[in-house]
What we know:
Number of strands: 28
Number of helices: 2
Structural class: mainly beta
Strand content: 35-45%
Amino acid sequence: xxxxxxxxxxxxxxxxxxxxxxxxxxxxxxxxxxxxxxxxxxxxxxxxxxxxxxxxxxxxxxxxxxxxxxxxxxxxxxxxxxxxxxxxxxxxxxxxxxxxxxxxxxxxxxxxxxxxxxxxxxxxxxxxxxxxxxxxxxxxxxxxxxxxxxxxxxxxxxxxxxxxxxxxxxxxxxxxxxxxxxxxxxxxxxxxxxxxxxxxxxxxxxxxxxxxxxxxxxxxxxxxxxxxxxxxxxxxxxxxxxxxxxxxxxxxxxxxxxxxxxxxxxxxxxxxxxxxxxxxxxxxxxxxxxxxxxxxxxxxxxxxxxxxxxxxxxxxxxxxxxxxxxxxxxxxxxxxxxxxxxxxxxxxxxxxxxxxxxxxxxxxxxxxxxxxxxxxx
Length: 377
C-alpha cells in the first residue's frame, strides 16, 4: 500500500461534496482547515472549489501554522498531534505526537515553530511549558520542556504564539504569554502580557518584555522585520488604551500599538499583513455575541483605513468570521454561517496600494472554516 493510499485510509477522505472523487495534490490558492469542533477537515482551495480530507486524527479544535517553510495542522484533542501538510495543497503527509509528558487530555498547544535542526517548539496554553519535540520524532520527556511557571503568580502564564528568528547569527525563540487569571473560569486578561526571547541553543531566557497590548490572541505575523500581534484586551470592551495591533521589535524587545482598538472600533481577533497592507477581523463588545467584521489598516503608518462601523465586510450576526489570508491577488475571509452550497469563503480582489475591490464569487466549504494559509508554490 503506497503512502497516498495509506493516508487516505488513516484520515478518511472527504471533500466539499461527498460524491466528488479525491483530487490530485495539485497546487492550490490556499491551504484551509475547517471544523465544527466535533469533526475537522484539511485541504486546499482554488477558485470557487475546495477539497477537504476528514479524519479523527485531525482533532476537534485544529490550528494551522507554518514555520521554516513547513506547514502543520495542530490537532488538539485526546492526544495532541502535529500533522505535517504538503504546503502546496494541504494534503497530510506525516504526523507526530506533541503531547506533554504525563498529560491527560489536551494541553492545548497554541502554535509551533521549527528550529534549524528540525526540532518542534510547541507552547502550551493549559500547561506552563514549551514542549520540544526532537527531529527524530520520539515522544517528549521531562527533559524536553522549558518551564514557564515562574512568569505568572497563578503558575501558568498561558503561552500562546511562538516564532523562531535568527538574531545576531543565533536562533532565538519569541514566545507570547497571555498571563490570564487561571483562578477565574472566565480567564480574564487582568495583567500585562509578556514576550520572552529564548536562546534556542541553550534554552535560556535572555529577555522578558512587557507588551504594549494586553491579551495577545492568535498567531504572530512576521512583516517588515518585526512581529505583529492581535491584542484584544477584554472582548467585552472597546476603547481600551492597551488593546489593538501590537508591533514588537525582535532586536530591541520594544513594542508599541500600531493601531488601537479605539481607531478600529472593535477588539482585534486576527490579523493578516502583506507588505504594508493589513487586514483584521474585529469583534464588537456584546457579551456572548461579539459580532465580527473585516477592516483594513496600514501597517507602516497605523492608519485605520476602515472601521467596525464602516467595514470592508460585516458586521455579522455573531462571532462568525474565522480565517483571514492575503495572496498576491486576493484577500480571503472565512465565514462560519452556512449558505447555499456550504460555508462561504469571501474573495476580495486586491487593487493598487492597500485597497481591495468588490467581493467576487465566494468559494464554498462543506465544513466551517477555521484558518487559511497561502499555498506554497
